[in-house]
């Protein structure tokens, strides 16, 4: 049995706050069999199936690299947006336009400073999505037609007229 399967057995067991003894009882196996499975040592196919059944996961879920099963479930329920660099306000609409929800995850962040930075980025993205949803459709599309002195502005985000005043009633995002 591979290390991925062993890691997944342990992870799924710990997600349920089960001890090895509890999993062994639920799978009708000995505690030593569960220990061997979590150590990556070979166990019988029937034992592996019993563990999967007790954990209420498929054998495929046990054999996939950690996180892959969760990502597949997320992809089946939500639209996943690939990361794209945002260099100016107009890029926000291209990336998040039409999104009503997001799943924000930063795997591999293992320091408090990194977690703080990730939390700040998540909050900024949520603020941008809120701002985007407050815009009128024409403002999201690229601006709106007003009187003859008003020109079209990209996305209306922070668009300014010649004297630095808003040429349209569009909120300007505040960046920290």
Explain what this protein looks like in three dimensions.
With 176 residues, the protein is mainly alpha-helical. The protein folds into two domains: 3-69, Orthogonal Bundle (434 Repressor (Amino-terminal Domain)), CATH 1.10.260; 78-176, no CATH class. The protein is 52% helix and 0% strand. It has nine helices and no strands. It has helices spanning 3-15, 20-27, 31-38, 45-55, 59-63, 68-77, 89-96, 112-134, 137-141. The longest helix has 23 residues, at 112-134. The protein starts with a helix and ends in a 35-residue tail after the last helix. Mean pLDDT is 75; it is low at 143-176.
Explain the layout of strands and helices.
Blueprint: H1 3-15, H2 20-27, H3 31-38, H4 45-55, H5 59-63, H6 68-77, H7 89-96, H8 112-134, H9 137-141
Helix pairs in contact: 2-3, 2-4
Termini gap: 50 Å
Q: What gross morphology would you assign?
A: elongated
Biggest β-sheet strands, sense, barrel: none
**Structural class by SSE content:** mainly alpha
Order of helices and strands: HHHHHHHHH
In the predicted model, the low-confidence regions spanning at least 5 consecutive residues are 143-176
Number of helices: 9
Mean pLDDT rating:
75
Task: Tell me what portion of residues adopts beta-strand conformation.
Answer: under 5%
Query: How many distinct folded domains?
Result: 2
Rg for CA atoms: 25 Å
Number of beta-strand segments: 0
